[in-house]
Amino acid sequence: MQARGGPGAPHTGVVTEFDDPRGLGALRDDDGRLFPFHCSALSDGSRTVAVGTRVAYTVVAGHGGRYEARAVNPLLTS
Q1: Closest CA to 57 of 78, 66, 34
Q2: CATH topology of domain 10-72
Q3: Domain extents in the chain
Q4: Residue 47 has pLDDT above 90, yes or no
Q5: Which of 34, 6, 3, 46 is nearest to 72 (CA)?
Q6: What is the Cβ-side half-sphere exposure of residue 32, based on CA atoms within 13 angstroms?
Q7: CB atoms within 10 A of CB 20
Q8: How much is the average pLDDT of 28-44?
Q9: Is pLDDT at 32 greater than 50 in this prediction?
């Protein structure tokens, strides 16, 4: 049995940190798990995202056996 929200499943969360010069960031999902991402994972074509931005993304196996966020898509707020 696969855990809820496993790899490849859609997730939502909030960007908790982003280093513009390096293009590296991290986001926390709604269950409190932390996932790193690179600016190339931003789906909207931008190379930056503000801390606190709510995003949708998928989780994939990354380098070194760690899971990371991919297809990071900022969500519109109303």
Answers
A1: 34
A2: OB fold (Dihydrolipoamide Acetyltransferase, E2P) (2.40.50)
A3: 10-72
A4: yes
A5: 46
A6: 0
A7: 11
A8: 95
A9: yes
